[in-house]
Amino acid sequence: MRKTRYATTASLQLMLLSFFITTCSKKDTAAPPDLCLGVNYTIDYFKTESVGGANNGTIAINYPIGDTISYKLNNGTFQASRNFTNLAPGNYILTVKNQNNCTDTITIAIFAYGPKYALVRSVISGYCGPCHYNGGNTAGKNFNTDSSVLFNWDIIKARAVDNVPTQMPAAPNAPLTAIDKQKITDWVNAGHRILD
Ligand code: HEC
User: Fold this and answer.
1) Is there a contact between 92 and 110 (Cβ–Cβ < 8 Å)?
2) Fewer CB within a 10 Å sphere, N or C end of the chain?
3) What is the pLDDT of residue 17?
4) Measured from the CB, is residue 171 less than 6 Å from ligand 1?
């Protein structure tokens, strides 16, 4: 259907009139101050995954912390402790609340790891940074994510266990101990999957 080309003067006047009535007839009441306005938290946490089907994932909040802050997971009740333990794998919504009942949330994923893979992850986080961990991307390799470790299992073993073509951690850093090399070997032999 074609629109009318011009609004008639009468309907235009009516529109303006109702605009002034609605905007100018409001009472000047001050809104209550919004205590939560501008409150947001850059929530910082450390988590460990659930290993070997034991539902033993953990979350420890590093920021914000303090006497006036409380925390809850999903629809649980708020608690003062910044630690959550015995977590099954899954996505959790963490809510932090301050003394004015202002809240902020973040989603945290707890993954399911096999015991051998969990050991490999701790070797990597312990020895492959700063070059390939956190912000590191030396030689185009960063091992922060499970997918990057799973994808690169063969060259991780070649370098960190067999020192081929060069040892990792890169010299002059010490090579891994025999015990740590064995953790990688065991995981590779088991099938180098996330649940191994
Ligand atoms: C001090 C920095 C440093 C540390 C620590 C380090 N690397 Fe490296 N890594 C390098 C450098 C530099 C290269 C590129 C030179 C080379 O290939 O030797 C490299 C290359 C690699 C490559 C080859 C990438 C490719 O595309 O072929 C792998 C795999 C690797 N590192 C794995 C590891 C693992 C696993 C660890 C921990 C056990 C580790 N690195 C620790 C510096 C480091």
Assistant:
1) yes
2) N
3) 45
4) no
Evaluate whether 49 touches 57 at the Cβ level (below 8 Å).
Answer: yes
Residues 30-59, mean pLDDT to the nearest whole number? 93
CA-closest residue to ligand 1 atom 32: 156
For the four alpha carbons of 178, 184, 189 and 195, in that order, the dihedral sign comes to positive
Query: Which atom of ligand 1 lies nearest, measured to the CA of 158?
Result: 29
User: Domain residues of the chain, as ranges?
Assistant: 44-112, 114-190
- Distance CA(81)–CA(83), nearest Å, equals 5
Q: Is 156 in the pocket of ligand 1 (CB under 6 A)?
A: yes
- What is the 143 CA–ligand 1 centroid distance (Å)? 10
What CATH class has 44-112? mainly beta
Residues 116-132 pLDDT 10s: 999 999 999 999 999 99
pLDDT tens-digit map of 65-88 = 999 999 999 999 999 999 999 999
Tokens representing residue 28 in the block = 């000047």
Q: Which of 77, 73, 74, 76 is nearest to 61 (CA)?
A: 73
Q: How far apart are CA 60 and CA 62, in angstroms?
A: 6
Quick one: DSSP state of residue 90? E
